[in-house]
Amino acid sequence: MVRLRLALMATILGAFACGGDKSTTPTGPTSPNSPTTPTGLTVPPLRDAAQSAGKLVGAAVQSGLLGDGRYSGVLGRHFNYLTAEYEMKWDAIEPTRGGNNFAAADAIVAYGQANGMKIKGHALIWHGSVPSWVGSLSASELRAAFEDHIRSVAEHFRGRVVAWDVVNEAIADDNSGLRDTIFRQKLGDQYIADAFRIAHQADLQALLFYNDYGGEGLNQKSNRIYDLVQGLRAQGVPIDGVGLQMHITAGNPPSEGNVAANMSRLASLGLMVNISEMDVRIRDLPAATRLETQRTVYKTLVSVCVAEPRCDAVTFWGFTDAHSWIDAQFGADDPLLFDDNYGAKPAYSGVFDALSRR
Ligand code: XIL
Fold this sequence. Notes:
Elements: H1 2-17, H2 46-53, E1 56-61, H3 69-78, E2 81-84, H4 90-93, H5 103-114, E3 118-126, H6 139-156, E4 163-168, H7 182-187, H8 191-202, E5 207-212, H9 220-234, E6 241-244, E7 247-249, H10 256-268, E8 272-281, H11 290-307, E9 311-316, H12 326-330, H13 346-355
Parallel strand pairs: 1-2, 1-9, 2-3, 3-4, 4-5, 5-6, 6-8, 7-8, 8-9
Helix pairs in contact: 2-13, 6-8, 10-11, 11-13
Bound molecules: (3S,4R)-3-hydroxy-2-oxopiperidin-4-yl beta-D-xylopyranoside.
């Protein structure tokens, strides 16, 4: 009965939305022009489950999409932690030398505050977002610009962000040690410690994280990350924790046991940990098993954070497959929790179950 009435309503609304055109476009939560309320707006909020577990559940967002009602509606319903996908990076804030533009980043913060969310700043020092003008600076000029950038940005958001990714992706992929960035070349290896010290002076309250990818489980990269942060701790550098990005594929995820062991050894240093940029690619799997495998991977790895007392947060790098950096970076995929039309995917259920300790 109910089904029949819903189907009838959908047909009427569909006809209305299409101006009477009886097109054969399928309706429902996954159709491109669906008139129905997406299930992302009706399924139980992830943030409630996260709160019960004592965790933050976050998403990276793009300021330009906050005006889209479905985007901001699903975001506000499910997440209690927010990260700017690009707007707080150096070349977004200071594309030309001499003056920060915080408008887009401030819009994200305002949205988060209006929706009872905490905010994580991302990322003060990253080789991937260095403004072009920085490339021509001498070592001493770079030193001044580096300090000024970290200080002015951290001061601007002081009191509004609870944490910063201070240094992002500083370890090389080839196990050679530190990545050969402009910062390392011109400021020396101690640029990492310096960045944390400057950020701490500018914002005494914010938790300060080192953030990287590929070192989620136990491997050479995570050993390097461990050595780096252990050294920083030993020198008394004000670092509070490590973010594990977790950009992974469903066919080859890090093992649950290795991620748990890695988190645990970082926690033993007195550090917090978090999953900072999770997405799970599925394009290489057979179509029939993709969504279920993805659900299992999300559930398994989010559960590791839920079980680790020093893991405070899980942040996803976006939340809808309609807007993910993965498509441009790795090819068309569906790596997130909600589909192109904001329908809740099995991945959503996996995360909900993990946060609910099921
Ligand atoms: C990415 C954004 O998602 C893209 O939109 C942008 O073009 C490049 O940066 N690791 C990080 C993030 O720490 O800042 C990156 O974000 C993705 C990889």
